[in-house]
Design a protein that fits this description.
A hairpin with a 4-residue loop joins β2 and β3. The model has no long low-confidence stretch (mean pLDDT 92). This protein starts with a strand and ends in a 5-residue tail after the last helix. A three-stranded antiparallel beta sheet has the order 1-2-3, with helices on one face. Helix content is 58%, strand content 21%.
Length: 124
């Protein structure tokens, strides 16, 4: 079994050998919301004990690691923005195109972040 992270969910994918094509074929068994990665009883019933254990291990390691990375990013975001501002201030004409592309990407992300702040009621 392996796991595919797709936006807000993780898909549980089982590989089954297909003798007709002489290789494995991926079958999505189900999906679980990443916000609360708990197997529903119906999905748990479709999995073997080993697959349930693999999912529990994935949640304990990969999912937890992802959550910690997100938290670290939030905790250090202001500092990262200050460092980025300094980098943009130091750029000359030799890096102008790179700086322009990065500035556009950053502004898109900032707009999405501001929208999230507003939706969560974090701004006055």
């Amino acid at each position: 079994m392996h796991f595919r992270v797709r936006k807000q969910v993780v898909q549980l994918v089982r590989m089954n050998y297909d003798p007709a094509i002489k290789r494995g074929r991926a079958q999505v068994v189900g999906s679980v919301k990443l916000a609360n990665p708990i197997l529903p009883a119906e999905l748990r019933g479709q999995l073997t004990a080993q697959e349930v254990a693999e999912f529990d291990t994935w949640v304990a390691t990969q999912h937890r690691s992802h959550q910690l990375k997100q938290e670290l990013a939030a905790l250090t975001l202001a500092e990262q923005i200050d460092q980025a501002r300094e980098w943009f201030e130091q750029q000359g004409t030799e890096n102008e195109e790179t700086a322009r592309v990065l500035a556009e990407e950053t502004l898109r992300s900032i707009k999405q972040l501001r929208r999230t702040f507003n939706q969560r009621g974090l701004l006055d």
